[in-house]
Specification:
Two copies of one chain form a homodimer. Chain A is an alpha/beta fold. Chain A has a single domain (3-172), classed as Alpha/beta knot (3-Layer(aba) Sandwich). Helices cover 36% and strands 25% of the residues of chain A. Chain A is built from six helices and eight strands. Chain A has helices at residues 16-28, 42-55, 67-76, 91-98, 114-119, 133-144, and strands at residues 3-8, 33-37, 60-65, 80-90, 103-108, 122-125, 159-161, 170-172. In chain A, the strands form two sheets. In chain A, strands 3-2-1-5-4-6 form a six-stranded parallel beta sheet. In chain A, strands 7-8 form a two-stranded antiparallel sheet. In chain A, α1 (16-28) packs parallel to α2 and α1 packs parallel to α6 (133-144). The mean pLDDT of chain A is 96.
Chain lengths: 173, 173
């Protein structure tokens, strides 16, 4: 099961920090990469690469392709497209339909084209209240992987945290 | 069990969007309110109040008290203080110690005072990789409430979403 995040509607500068949170959340919670629709963002790519060098793993970010093309290609290859939106069906109901499939998980910034609702295989709500695409993605991935994603090892980095009750313990590799 | 979020290190303007995501995530995933340490932020309060008027519930935001004072008062009243940090102990291990207690859940912006690690009852990691305080809070609350939080009703708002497979269905109350 491959899981890739598709970030829609990213505006350079204005959305940079939030999109960085989306990318790092995707990485830490088990997605293999993130596609930034329509454009590239060199600063975002730099930050994510730097995190990978420091902390390991093989998470990637790419950008610059129109979102419809990404969605259509994913479906052509047999994967499913899931759009996270407060208007969608409850996560609990949809999750059983997703397991075992390759998933492209679309998360919007403030405005998402209406067409996304049509092209997605499933519109999924992490609660039907307004909150945050970062939070929605986090809960979605945690439920999808059943918590296993937090125990994964990220290999090849320069350092690793040694979990502790107090303070910051880091091992340099 | 009361759950209140304590937002540390918020800088006006620079952190406004992320802190808004923290607040709305806290609200949507079952916390009763959020305390913004040290300062108030009128714009943030306005946004959260507006969301409450539209979508219901009784979530509150307050600000302006020093974080140590908030932490000490919470503990004096018998509650526990949980600090979410990538350096902490795994969520799985700590969760059983938390259920049934009133929880103050501290989440930082970029820099958190070292003293927070000492004053917290538990330093808890939602994975030991860098990601997002919004994501960490979301997974923490979802695990704490076991998914029940997404089924809560928010009463007294002006509208409500009717979950659907396609499009946006909203009922005006």
């Amino acid at each position: 099961m491959r899981v890739v995040v598709l970030r829609l509607g990213h505006r350079p500068f204005r959305d940079q920090r939030l999109t960085t949170h989306v990318a790092l959340t995707a990485r830490a919670l088990g997605a293999e990469g993130m596609i930034l629709a329509e454009r590239r963002d060199a600063e975002l790519e730099r930050v994510v690469e730097e995190v990978g060098r420091e902390w390991g793993g093989s998470f990637w970010v790419e950008g610059g392709r129109p979102w419809r093309e990404v969605v259509e290609e994913w479906r052509k290859k047999g994967g499913k497209v899931v759009h996270l939106t407060m208007y969608g069906r409850p996560l609990d109901e949809v999750l059983p339909l997703l397991r075992g499939h390759d998933l492209l998980v679309a998360v919007g910034a403030e405005k998402v084209p209406g067409e996304m609702f049509e092209l997605a295989d499933h519109n999924v709500a992490v609660g039907n209240q307004p909150h945050s695409e970062v939070a929605a993605l986090a809960v979605f991935l945690d439920r999808l992987f059943g918590g296993e994603e937090l125990r994964r090892e990220f290999r090849g980095g320069r350092k690793r945290i040694l979990p502790s009750e107090r303070g910051k313990r880091v091992e340099f590799l």
